[in-house]
Amino acid sequence: MSDVPFSKGDRVEVRRASSLPGGLRGGDAFYPATVLRAPARSRAQILVEYDSVASPTSTLTPLREYVPWVTARPAPPNEFGRRFLPGETVEAYAEEGWHQGTVLEVSEDNSRYLVFLEATQEEADFLQSCLRLRREWTGGGWDPPFPGQKLLPGKPSPVTESKPGKVRQLKITFSKKSAPRFKKGKTVEVCSDDEGYEGAWYTAVIVDYLGNGKYIVEYLTLKTDDETAPLREEAREDYIRPYPPRRLVPFSLLDKVDVWYNDGWWTGVISKVLNGSTYVIYFSTTNEELVFEQLDLRIHQDWINQKWVIDSQDAFHQLGPATGNLSSKTYFHKGMKVEVRSDEDGYRGSWYTAVILDSIGEDVYLVEYQTLKADDETELLKEKVRGSDIRPYPPEVQQTCGFARLEAVDAWYNDGWWMGHISQILKDLKYQVYFRLSNEEMVFKHDDLRPHLEWMGGQWIPSSKIEGPRLFFWFDEDSGLYLFRASLFRGVSFNGNQLNIDRRHGIRLASSLSN
User: Fold this and answer.
1) 208 vs 402, which has greater pLDDT?
2) Residue 175 predicted with pLDDT over 90
3) Which residues pair with 124 in a beta bridge?
4) Is the pTM for the entire model greater than 0.90?
């Protein structure tokens, strides 16, 4: 068994019976898979897990099975942008596998191909990205070889294998000759391009194929203007995809998800986990956050090259392996609503609302402030900002019961948020707030304050739950003392006592504070 060319973790393709509807007996196709276990000495089989072939017991679980290793071959490298000629033997990706066929006709822009499939003895049209040249794995290389690969001994050049008599360049449009990609009665999802609804997906059924890549669809959740019947409309093929499989996976912070809202599925990102079944979802297209139950969520999947691909959260963020902190290098994306910290004298530590316009370098972003204007006051201020001075826009937390004395808050002042502590509770829902950096106090209305949150480890943490002791203080004009309050992690304080430090006479413990 030492001659077996596969090891655990290898990417392979396995030859098995074609799954195309109406496929002929004996028709085979290649299905992408991963080797889970190399063969034992006594067996000539390998254990594989298919990328998209589902288990017969559960459509949510990929099929695992033992197959003779001689039915597998290495996964061929991708060959992007290749054009094909009529008469060439190709493999077309459909129903989760690669099926052999022959190119019959080519569209004028070389983006679509009419292919005769051997498994079904029928014609179907495919995008260029769903085709590849038919190659055989001989054990030592691919035949015909890929560019840069040496020709195998005794094999003719690929040029001599072409069939000049069948090669013809046609100017065609796929209308009557092209087979529909979606059959009548098939449940699909249709993407909206209407203003205000861009990117939302709506469940529908294929009613008819009009040709030229156009269909009549009937929506399952949308009705006509008079609310008397399901809405029907024409939809282009590029805006239609199969109905995605339901995958039962746990949701985590920053997962990309689809949310059921207004009769359709909208793409967002989990920005906060409220409890085991409730989540705050951030929508980058509208720069807003909404709360949803777990039953209204599904993991986001993209339909790429005729297969479903789960969008990994690594595409949205990156966790540092040692600290667990978010790396702003990949977390902040174009269009994201954020807050930017100022480091200018007189403004240091204040936060200003902005939108990411672009990433312009290593951990450097171009932002547009939403409350600050350029010097000429004609447009919003744009500037380059380091990733370390950016954080996501915090969720809105309603403080309906009022703020407590010594509580950490953010105060809205001079078009930004400034961190301080409640030093005194006044009448008419007003508070006196002490700002440590400037050593001054100001009076604010309740509506101009918000609870202070810290962005740590990829989530928003109330200041009372930040681990480690913190010392809050302000200067009392009457006594000439600096008044301190020490607070332990998770909001536990030193018996509610106030620790006073006199610059001249040292430290003494004062009586308990009250609200």
Assistant:
1) 208
2) no
3) 115
4) no
